[in-house]
Amino acid sequence: MSDKFSNADTGSKPADPYTAKNKDDPQLKEKIEDLVAFMERCKFGMMTTRIASTGQLVSRCMALAAKEGGGIDLLFHTNTESGKTDDLQSDPTINIAFLNPSGEWASISGEATITTDREKVRKYYSPGLKAWLGDLGDGTHDGGPEDPRIGMIAVKAKTATYAIVNQNAIGRGIEIAKGIVTGSAPNVNKLREISEEELNE
């Protein structure tokens, strides 16, 4: 039995004309640079993990704290006593998704580790974290850089898929209108993939 789903036979014509029309495969350096720039502009991503107790998927909004590995490996602050750390302890497989109002998006899949290394926490500490963790008044759990509840989730990227626009809003509107009239898929995005093999280069 095939593990692929299909509900149509389009013969020699592409069944997914949007992907065929918008797929873009420049040099790896350009793909990574454009992805990193897009994530920096977004600042916030949706982190998806598998709930340790039920196996269901859950997503939550996370602020991007820093990047490593040429910008493709991501760091996020976390409260080590929160549910997401339990999820990642059970299953480190993770996805981070970014989206902006223009419809540009990115999906990074990889593996996560939780670090409580104080040097790294101090390096990327933000005073805004105190608002989320609070000061428990015991002299230790004060939301500061030495608070043991503050850790970091390090995401080692395995693959990435993203789409960024290839023209301004007016040009995209014309392309979409033309597609509606002619039935031809609009060329409005640079749809790119970065494989695990490329990221290991």
Written overview of the protein:
- With about 200 residues, the chain is of the alpha+beta class.
- About 30% of the residues lie in helices and about 35% in strands.
- The chain contains seven helices and seven strands; from the N terminus they run ααβββαββααβαβα.
- It has helices at about 15-20, 30-40, 85-90, 120-125, 130-135, 170-180, 195-200, and strands at about 45-50, 55-70, 75-80, 95-100, 105-115, 150-165, 190-195.
- The two termini are about 35 Å apart.
Distance between the ends: 35 Å
Contiguous runs where pLDDT drops below 50 for at least 5 residues:
none
**Average of pLDDT:** 87
The helix fraction, in percent, is 25-40%
| Overall form | elongated
Core attributes:
alpha+beta; single chain; elongated; 201 residues
